[in-house]
Predict the structure.
Amino acid sequence: MSGEPARRSLDDPVELLMPEATKGGQAVVRKLATALRLAALETADARSPSAGVELGLAFAALREHDLIEALLALEDLLIHHAAACRRPSSFAVLPKPRVTYTESLRSLLKLVGRRAADLEFELSPPGTPPEVALRGLLQVLKLWVQRPDVDPLLADRADLWEARCLRYDGAFGRAQELLGEVLAARAGASDRVSRDFRAVVLAELVSIHLDQGQLDEASAAVARGGPSPKFPADVRDGLGALALAVRWLQGEGTLPSLRDAFLRSSHDVPHGWSEVMSRTAPQGGVAPDAAVQVEASGHAPPRASLPTRAELGAQALVFLVLDDEGRLRRGTAEVSPALEGSLDDWVRRGRRGDGEHGLLQQEALRGACPVIVTAGAPGGVADGRLRRSCLDPDRGLPLGVIALPIEQGDEVVGLLWMEFATRLLPGAGVLRSIAERAVGHPLLRHRVGASVHLSVERSSPLDVEERAARDDLRRLWVDLVEDLSLKTAERRWVAFQRFGLGGDLVPVASGGAGGRRLKEPTSRGVWAIRRVLGAGGFVRYEGDPGQGGAAMLHPGAAAGVAIAVPGLSGVEAVLVIESARRGDSRERDATRWAEMLERKAGTLQCAALDLRDRMSHGGGLVLDSLASDEQAFLVRLQALSSNRSDLIIRGEAGSGRRTLARAVHHARRARGQRADLVQVSSFGLPVEELREVFSRAAVETVVLADVERLDVKGQVCLTQILEESIHRRPRMVATGAFATTNPGDGVGRGEAAGACAKPLLTPQRHPDLYRNLDRIEVATRSLRHVRHRVPAMARALAQRWERSARPGDPMLWSGASDEVESILWRQPWRGNAVELEAVVRQALLRAAGAAVREGHLRQAFDDVGLDVVTRLPSRHPEVRDLASALWTTRTSTGRINKTRAAAYCGWDPNTLAARLRELGITGIQDVERLLLETAS
Amino acid sequence: MTDRSPRSAPRRPGQAGWRPVPAWRRYLRAGQAEEVLRQIIPGDPLRLRLLAAERVTAAARIVDVDRVVLRAMARIAHSAALHGPPADEDWLVGEMNRSIEEVVGSGTERVVGAGSFLEALAPGAGLEPEALIRSCAAFNRRSRDERVAFWSLMIATEPLEEAADRHETSSVELARRSRRVLAAMLRAAAGSGAA
C-alpha cells in the first residue's frame, strides 16, 4: 500500500529527518538519539536532594563565581571610566555595562571585602581624572588575570583594555600594535568565544583607524573579520555595525540605520556615528552649536597656523576672509591639483558673504554656525546643495563639505571651506580647534580690534570714570532713540558704537520690550551690522527661520533694520531695530530714522571722542555739537585725522591743545599695529628719550607738548626724526603757546587758508625744524571765543569733581541755575579751561554738598583771584559773543530767547534788541550763520 | 512502537512542577555567602535540582545538570549575600537559567559543560565519547527553536504534527529545524566542523 511507508516514516523521526540516509548512517543517528535520550533522562531525574553536591565543591564553585563576578564588576567599572575618557567624536565602541557605576562599585567592594586575601583592589580617590582612574583599574585587572584559576582569555581581555587606555591617551600607534599582538595570539582559535573576542578586538582596531581618519585601513581591518553584514538587521556585533558604517563613509550604499544595530549587539552608539547621524539629518546639515563646543582642542598641541589638507584628509581646503564690505576674499588655499583651476571662479561665485544664492558658504556666514553637508544624506536635498556650492561639480561631487565660520569676538570674520572625498569628516572638537587656530591667522589681523561685540566687558567698580562715560553715552542714545519716535512695544533696539582705539563696535545702549518674544542678541544677526558698516545707509531684512530668511540679531524677531550712523572715520555707530512683527521694517520708517540719525551724527561723534579720551587719558572733549561752528570744527578734525601727517597745534594755555591733539588721534581708527598715543613734554626732554619714543612700533601718535621749549639738541634730533618717512614712524602732533596774529582763528587754518601765524621763535631755533612744523598748523580757540561751550564744559568739569569726591564729602552741580551759568558764560576766561576748572571746583567746595548757587560762585571767583565780569560791552559787542548768547539761550524748539540772551550778556532786553536789529538777526538761522562766520 | 510514558520519555520542554519549600527565603538570610551555601545544600530546600532539571529541559540543553546545580548554588549564595533574599521565586528561576547558560558557555569547543557526564553515557549508546561530546556541543550551539524542535522529535519522540501544533509552527518547518540540528551534529560527530 502506498500510504503505509509514508506513515511509518512520519512516526520514525530518523526516517523522517534522513530519508535518504544509508542504513549505516541511520544507525549512527539512532545511537546519537539514544545517547541524547539518556542524557535527557539523566537530567530529568530529580534524585535525592542532597545527592551530588558536596560542600567543598560548592565552596570551590563559589570562589570561582566570586572571581567571575569580581572581574565582571571590574570590567563594568572600566567601561564606565572608559566612556568618560572617549573623545566626543570618537568611533570607539564600548560594550554596555551591566549595571550602574554605583552598583558595580558596591558589588566589587563587597566581593573584595570577602576575598581580601585573594583579590587586591584599591579605589582611586574622588576627583581622580578618569584617565588616571582607568589606568588604576587596568592595573588591578592585569593583576587578577595572572591568577592560575582565571580563564586565559581574560589575559587577552586585559590586553584589549590596555590598548583602549593607550588609545584614550592618544597613543594610537601603540594601541594598534598591542591589538595586533592579541589578534596574532588567537589566530588559530576557531571556537565561538575566540571568534567573538576577535570581533571585539577588530572593532577596536577599526574604530582607532576611523578616529585617525584612516578609512582604507579601517576597511582592511573590517575585512580581517570575515564576511560583513549587508544590512543593519544582519548585525550581530559591534564589528558588523562598524563595517556598515565604514562602507557608508567610503561612499557606498545608503545611510544605514545603525543605532539599533549597535544597541542590539549590546554596545552603545559611538559618538562619531551619532555625529554623522546628526550631520546627515534630513532637515539640514547645520551642526548644532553645542556640537561644536563640546570639545576642547583635544590632545593636539596648539598651533597658530591653519591645518593642512593632509592633516584633515580633505581634497580641498580654502581659507576665505570677509572684508569690511562683506565680501569674501581668497586667503590661503590648498586644493588637489584637479581642482586648482576652478578655485578663482568658485571664489567669485560666492563672493558676497551675505548673499542669498543658497550657497553653503553664505549659509554658514549668515548663521555664524558650521554647515556640514554629506552626499547621499536622506531626503536627497544634500546633493543639490553640494552641487551648487562645491568647487567643481563637473569633476564629481565631494562626499562631504564643511563650511566653518571663523569668529573673532562675536563676529564672523572669515570662513574655512573644506571638501572631502569621503564621508568621514572631522569631528566637532577638531573643527573647534581649527577655528581657534584660524583666528590668529595673519590675514585676519587687520580685523583685530575692529570686530563687533555683543556684550561689553564689565568695567571695574572702581573705574568710576569709565562707568560714567558709558552711562553718558547710554543716556545719549536713549535720548536719540526717543527722538526717532520709535514704538518699542514690539521692537527691541541695540545701539553699537565704536569703542576704543581699535574701533570695535560694542553695544552701548539698548531698549524696547520686543513683544516679550525677542531673546537676547546673538551673533547670527551680526551680518547686518557688518553690511552697513561697509556700505553705510541702512539695510532692512525679514527673518523666517528655516525658510532661508535672514538671520536676526534677536532670536524670535521677524523684521529688522540696521542703520549706519556716519562719523569722522567711516561709520561711527550702528543702530539695530528689530521687531517681533512681520513687515515692521518699512522703507519709509527706515529712511526717516536714518536721516534723523545722520543729523545727530555730530553729537554721537563728540560723545565718542569724549568717551575715548576720558577712558584712555582721563581727559574729555566737550563741544556743543549742535552749533554750526562746532560742527565745522568736527569736519576739520576729520580731515586732520584722516590725513596722516605731522601737525602743530597752537593756542593759549588751557585752550585744549593737548585735548585736540588726542582727539585727532582718537578720531583716526587704528590701522595695522600702530595704535598707541604717547604724550611727552618738551621741557628738559633728553634726546635719547625723544628718539626712543619715536622708535616704538606700537605708537601711532606722539604728542609733543610745549615744543618751543625744546633745546637745541632736541631740535636737531626732532628734525632728523621728522625727515624720516611718516609711514615708518609715529605721527607727531606738537603743541605750543605760540604768538598768533589772529587769536580767533579756528582749527585747520593753516591748511585751509594758508595764512598761518608764525611761531614764537626761540633764540636758537632750527630753521629746518620750523619749516617742517609750519606745514600744517592748527589753532585752538580760546574759551571766550566759544562761550556757548562754557555751560557744557562747566557741567563736565563739575561732574568730574563730583565723581572724585570722597564719601561724606559730597559735591553737587546739578542744581546749577541759569544765573550761575550766565555768570560763567560771561567771563573772559583768560586762563581758559584751567581757570574755569578752578572756579568750578571752588564753587563746589563752597556749596559743600548743596547745589551751587550764585553766592557760591562769586566766592569761588574771589578764591581764585578773579574779578567777576557782570556785563559784556554793549555798545560795540563782539558779534560772536552775541551769536553765542543767542545760541546758548535758544528755546528747546530752536527759537531765540532775547530775554535770556540779554541776561547772559548782562544787558537789558532792549539793548539786545537794538543790537540784533543792527546786525539783522531775526532768527536762529542767522545765529548759526554768524557762529560759523566768526569761527573762521 | 515508541513508548511515550513519562518514565521512558524525557520531559518535554516547558513542563513545570517545581516549587521550593515554604519559607524558603529564610535560608538565604544567613549573611555571608559561605553561610548561605551551608543552608541551601543539605536537603536542597530550594529544590534546585528539580528546578535545574526543568529549566535544562525547557531550554533544550544537553548539559551536566549537577554542574548547573553547583553553579546555581554559587550564584544564589553570592547574590543573597550581596543583595539579601530575593522578593519571589522568579529570581531563583532566573538565576538557574543564567547558570545553565554559563555552564554551556563556560567551556571551550570540546567541553560544553557536559564532558564527563557524556563520557559516561557514550559507551551505553555505542558511540565514541569524543564524537558524542562534539555532537552535543554542536547541538547546544544551535538556536533555541531548532533545539526545541529536535528535542521534541528525536528526544521526546513526539509525533510530528502534535509537536508542530504545540510549537505553533508547521510540520515542515519543525522537521526542517530538526534536520538542520541533526546535520550539524553528524558533521561534528564526524569531526568535520563546528557546524
Notes: Chain A is about 45% helix and 10% strand.
